[in-house]
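How a chain folds remains the central question behind the approach discussed here. In the encoding step, the backbone of a single protein was reduced to a row of integers, each denoting a local shape. We regard such an encoding as a compact summary of how the chain folds. The sequence in question and its structure tokens are set out directly beneath this paragraph:

___
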Amino acid sequence: MRKRFAALAVLVILLAGCRGLGQTPPPPPFDPDSLATALALTAAAPPPGFGTVAFPAVDDRLDDLSGYRYTVEMRFEGAFGQTSRQTSGYIRAEVWWDDVAQARRVVLVAEGDSFVSEPRRFEGVRLGDAYYLVDASGRCLLNVEDTARTIAGLEAGTLIGGVTAAPYSGTHAVLNGVEAYRYDVALPGMTLPAVHAIENSALQLSSGELWVAPLHNVVVRYYANVDVTNVRLFESQLPVTGQVFIRYDVYDLGVAQNISIPFGC
């Protein structure tokens, strides 16, 4: 089992040590206004023990599976403090896992002055006891094993947190290829490691949903929209006011992923 990082600070400090990165490509289109899941929802009782669930880190127990792939992203749209100066931030990671080979691949993109001081893009790969790191230009970096370990070991829970308690909502559906049950999310039960409260901070959940696959006992989807007032995000020291959008989807549960040495390494 991988050691879970206690805070995102470990990641951003190590990332800051690698310079000379090019501009990251713009993020894909993002719909901040709708959490609609285009599914046929049906009412059904969850299996015993799944009336209320807890995933303080949204990717808890994923590594018990032989493989998976997931995408995790957080986006902010708003302004600095109580001003009209607009700002935004975006961080996204795609993660692959192969338990048999003990192989993991992470592609990480971060940009926006409400999140980070400069745009960053890295690919980190773990193959057994070997680690590789590729920068935004496609260059394989040498003598950076600590940073490579951090990127290749990055976890969704470190970025977006999870929920400490969520009750069953009464609906279930086939989602991301598996049978999943939907749970209601409330702000008091959310962990948000990237959102740092300061004086006169306020948070309000405008919508949220958590989907769990009982067969694997893992989260397969976690979406949330949070209105924030006067908070700091990730490594930024400047307070912001606006909306934070969280998106997390897991695919290929139990399917070992094909992971190899990055090109050029």
